[in-house]
Design a protein that fits this description.
The chain is mainly α. The protein folds into two domains: 62 residues, no CATH class; 343 residues, ABC transporter involved in vitamin B12 uptake, BtuC, CATH 1.10.3470. It is built from 15 helices and three strands. The protein has a three-stranded mixed beta sheet with strand order 1-2-3. The longest helix is centred in the middle third of the chain and has 39 residues. The chain is globular and about 70 Å long. 38% of the residues are buried.
């Protein structure tokens, strides 16, 4: 059964919450899945003179409030499960290494440290506390926050550019960071206050703004922003190619420092400190709240500029803000850990199998899953393999075949 009603009085947020992902459910007909009742809403907006003006197409939505509540509760349980798995992975990673630490000792050291009751006069306790808080925990938390930030960045880029192959490095951010870091290594600035991460971050930011400047067109008409996804991707490819040539030239003239440049480009979490963790954590928290605040607008943008603008989205502001947010997250990650590929590309596709395309669910789930996967890979390189290999190499070796399998499966479906 289908009923039709006008929804001028319904807030856009509520209208979208029910309706966005039901648009394609019954586009060919009027029958919902499993006999569910579908209500047909005709979207309207008020003109300047106060007259009704229909815009866009009819939107099919599911009105079951109980079903919505059940979906929210089930999603909360999924996020809780992901967080518990991530916490277990952190504990497991803390116990693994050259010196194995039992789980009960880890729990005792952590509780004693936070409660101030740890007895540092016992040699074993002092050794375990030093290993946990000075060596392993900073690296583990830095790795988890980098994985979370790259995953959020990947979700934002895929949503903004409307391209399933977009990742945090699509706009040449990684090439800009690598170029800046290569200059710092070549000038031997690693031990100065103007360190390699600072040069890498500045290079990534400069590359981002140059790509935006190169792709911006002030002649765009209608609801567009002047920043089309095709122009952004092409500009990113052009700038990345130029910077890659510059990196090759820096390697050529680096002489004995070329090995340092190559190792940095492969990515690593070795010798990370609490300062590295807090810097990335602050960027992650700010970036996540910005992304989740505009998640509904990001969903509407996927309908197209005209439809999103008619539903009240400021296309230019949202696009630029989310573009800068995703790029800044990628830039700070690259500046600390080097180039780590496939995390921002692979994780959003994996999580969509569980959450669907709704960015309000996809963003938090991707953040937790990205943290887990990158921490899992780093634990393998640090504690399982006989010799530690750069984390970027392992993520590429694992992520490439997995992404091929996901892509082939989606094509067959």
């Amino acid at each position: 059964m289908v009923s039709t009603m006008w929804i001028n009085s319904v807030p856009i947020s509520e209208r979208f919450w029910y309706g966005f992902f039901s648009v394609g459910v019954s586009q060919g007909g009027r029958q919902g899945k499993k006999g569910q009742t579908i209500i047909l809403f005709h979207v309207e907006q008020k003109t300047a003179k106060g007259m009704d003006h229909p815009v866009g197409k009819d939107i099919l939505i599911k009105p079951e409030n109980k079903s919505r509540l059940k979906q929210v509760l089930s999603f909360n349980y999924v996020i809780l499960l992901f967080c518990l798995v991530l916490a277990g992975m952190i504990m497991l990673s803390l116990s693994m290494g050259f010196i194995a630490i039992p789980m009960e000792e880890i729990a005792g050291v952590l509780m004693g440290k936070f409660l101030g009751t740890i007895d540092m006069t016992i040699p074993a306790k002092e050794t375990f506390a030093t290993i946990i808080f000075d060596v392993r925990l900073p690296r583990i938390l830095t790795c988890a926050t980098v994985g979370a930030a790259l995953s959020i960045s990947g979700v934002l880029f895929q949503g903004i550019l409307l391209n399933p192959l977009a990742d945090p490095y699509t706009l040449g951010v990684s090439a800009g960071a690598a170029f800046g870091a290569s200059i710092a290594i070549l000038l031997n600035l690693g031990a100065t206050f103007v360190s390699i991460p600072v040069f890498a971050f500045v290079g990534a930011c400069a590359t981002l703004f140059f790509v935006v400047f190169l792709s911006y067109s002030s002649s765009s008409k209608g609801a567009g922003t002047g920043l089309s996804s095709n122009n952004l991707i092409l500009s990113g490819i052009i700038v990345a190619a130029i910077l890659s040539a510059g990196i090759s030239f820096l390697k050529f003239i680096a002489n004995e420092q070329v090995s340092v440049i190559i190792f940095w480009l492969m990515g690593s979490f070795a010798s990370k400190t609490w300062d590295n963790f807090w810097v990335i954590f602050i960027f992650l928290v700010v970036g996540f709240f910005i992304a989740i605040y505009y998640a509904r607008d990001l969903n509407l943008i996927s309908l197209g500029d005209r439809a999103a603008a008619s539903l009240g989205v400021d296309i230019k502001k949202v696009t630029l803000l989310l573009l800068v947010t995703g790029s800044m997250l990628a830039a700070i990650c690259v500046s600390v850990s080097g180039i780590i590929g496939f995390v921002g590309l692979l994780v959003p596709h994996m999580v969509r199998f569980v959450t669907g395309p709704d960015n309000r669910k996809l963003l938090p789930a991707s953040m937790v899953v990205g943290a887990f996967l990158l921490l899992f890979a780093d634990t393998i390189t640090r504690a399982v393999l006989p010799h530690e290999i750069p984390i970027g190499v392992l993520t590429a070796l694992i992520g490439g075949p997995v992404f091929c399998w996901i892509f082939k499966r989606s094509r067959l479906a």
